């Protein structure tokens, strides 16, 4: 701009010089050009400079407006960043509180578990005392019948009847005590479920901050074993003789509550099982999957002896399942639920060979509302990651897809696979988890499974629709 003004002054000076020197010029008759042409150029140049100045002024105003907008946006960003910082601090504080709560709940869970174990032992002791007392009463009654005809007087008979009344009252008191203990045990189990739910929420909150929600590739192999059957030495023989053979017999003895009982099938050693009494008969549960709390990628020894928690997820054990099925006329009932909460069931007549045949499974379809998902598994030996018995020559299905099962090929049904906490859409992901493959259709990912056995002559879920839907397919 300074250069333009300098040029303007030079032109103005040149014009004045021309005007001042006009008198010194001699008059000539030849026509000369107008001296005002330079002034027109000056005016034109001045007009251009004015327009340029106006444009510069407009540009400066526009630039100031843009700078003000930028400063406003920076202020808004600064306030948003401060709010996010405060929110992050609050989230961190809440996470610390959740961790403290989880520690407290863990301590309470351990205490409740100890109380539950003590209650279980007391219930067993009371049951044994009840059985022993009943045997003694029956013996006394028999002796009294033989003696009352010849030896006892009327007063003695009345005294004996009074004694029988006292014994009956004591037995009723024991029954009421058992009922109260069971109610307390159910309450403790409910508290344990609530604690587990809070622990899952805490775990989900931690995973949401660290990852996109994917499950870890492997779990700890330290899986709890099922609680064993225990009895005192003095009463063990009597208790073993009086134990039912399965949950169906437990139901027939008048026990209608779904919980853990001790059984002794087929002359085997006694052991504990979970009895499902919800279908108007007793069914012995041999497997349950519902929340991924137990790692089912276990060794042959674990699958043979059993692992997990009767009140959560568990596998009863191949040796125990064999002793149950060996009693004959067994029905294998499979209850399934997918991620849309559609419920299905299927039943087979079942036979299971012993350890010398690697627990070969034999099935024959009875009923259900699914295409036969176990068709390719009948006649198969059981396989685990450390003992491969499947017919796939070039692949260990239990190792590649996790979980012990009666594998034929790796793409078939596996209800002991990895538990995913979300529904996977990919075929390879589904096949690595708990899945069902009915016929030639694609595999279905499952969120809940329960496998149980009961005698063939017991009315089953298939004859009573119960809680299962009849028309929707998985």
Automatic annotation (TrEMBL):
Coiled coil regions, renumbered to chain: 81-201
InterPro entries, A to Z: Fibrinogen-like_C, Fibrinogen_a/b/g_C_1, Fibrinogen_a/b/g_C_dom, Fibrinogen_C-term_domain
Signal sequence segment: 1-20
GO biological process: cholesterol homeostasis; phospholipid catabolic process; phospholipid homeostasis; triglyceride homeostasis
GO terms for cellular component: extracellular space
Chain positions covered by the region annotation Disordered: 206-241
Biased composition (Polar residues): 206-226
PANTHER family: ANGIOPOIETIN-RELATED PROTEIN 3, FIBRINOGEN/TENASCIN/ANGIOPOEITIN
Name of protein: Angiopoietin like 3
Originating organism: Hippocampus comes
